[in-house]
Specification:
The chain is α+β, with helices and mostly antiparallel strands. It has one helix at about 55-65; strands at about 20, 30-35, 40-45, 45-55.
């Protein structure tokens, strides 16, 4: 994976269409997650124009660290 794919902005044409909102999000602090066969995408539901993209391995590492 190149460093470009590591949490970088994602053009609209590459974003997935099905997003899930975190059940732990509070009022005004919502995080949405979506995935494809190659990547996991994360965005703030208030500012959807900024999306982060991670490969599945890096996402799993992050989730396990919580």
């Amino acid at each position: 994976m190149s460093s470009r794919d590591e949490g970088g902005p994602v053009p609209d044409s590459r974003q997935p269409t099905r997003w899930r909102k975190s059940g732990r999000s509070g009022p005004g602090e919502c995080v949405e997650v979506a995935q494809t066969d190659r990547h996991v995408y994360v965005r703030d539901s208030k500012t959807r124009d900024h999306t982060l993209r991670f490969d599945h391995e890096r996402w799993l590492t992050f989730v396990k660290s919580l």
